[in-house]
Amino acid sequence: MIEEERPDPNGPERSDPTGSDVGDSEDPDTQGVLDEALREKDQFRALAQRVQADLENFKRRAVEEKEDLRKFGQSQVILRVLGVSDDFRRAMEMVPEEAVAPGWREGLELVQRGFDHLLEAEGVTAIEAQGEPFEPSEHEAVLFQETTELEAGRVLSVVRNGYKHNGRVLRAAQVTVAKAP
Questions:
Q1: pLDDT of residue 22
Q2: How far is 136 from 20, CA to CA, in rounded Å?
Q3: pLDDT tens per residue, range 116-133
Q4: Which of 13, 59, 105, 124 would staple 119 via disulfide (CB 3.0–4.6 Å)?
Q5: Domain range spanning residue 78?
Q6: Number of folded domains in the chain?
Q7: Do the beta carbons of residue 152 and residue 145 sit within 8 Å?
Q8: Mean pLDDT lowest among 24-28, 40-44, 95-99, 137-141
Q9: pTM (2 decimals)?
Q10: Looking at the domain assignment, is residue 154 inside a domain?
Q11: Measured between alpha carbons, how far is 114 from 90 in angstroms, rounded to an integer?
């Protein structure tokens, strides 16, 4: 009887599914290439995570900027309306009572209230300054006046009203500030 040669189960001919010989020791160059590839993989993963975080931050900032534009984009128009409203109010104060026909003053006051309601609906509020401590972020000092009526550093009078738009100073109040005699 002829004996068939059978491969030794522990011998060098056994291979893994990838086709590489399991019994062979790994080549040092292959191990170095593998280590380098793993380092690069980690670097690319970290880079991808940073880029993804940057993209998320960009999206968040874009939404915030869009909201700011929506809230404060009309600031220039509001400033113009404030100028007209201030001029109208000053003109009303200068007109003598006897110079206006009956009913006209009430009509003009109605127009002024319309300006005020329009500004209020847009989120514009007046800055309260009279008698308050001087606040550089909200007040613009145009004059310092010696007085004993108020303590030094308080607003003695308002020259021009100031306004905020949605909590942000739109126009500082021009004020006279009290100083000690």
A1: 44
A2: 78
A3: 999 999 889 999 999 999
A4: 124
A5: 73-122
A6: 3
A7: no
A8: 24-28
A9: 0.59
A10: yes
A11: 16
Residue 137 and residue 146 in contact, taking contact as beta carbons nearer than 8 Å: no
Among 38, 54, 72, the domain boundary falls at 72
Report DSSP letters for the chain, one per residue: -PPPP---TTSTT-B-TTS-BSSSPPPHHHHHHHHHHHHHHHHHHHHHHHHHHHHHHHHHHHHHHHHHHHHHTTHHHHHHHHHHHHHHHHHHHHS-GGGS-TTHHHHHHHHHHHHHHHHHHTTEEEPP-TTSBP-TTTEEEEEEEE-SSS-TTBEEEEEE--EEETTEEEEPEEEEEEE--
Return the percentage of the chain with pLDDT > 90, whole number. 49
Sequence letter at residue 13: E
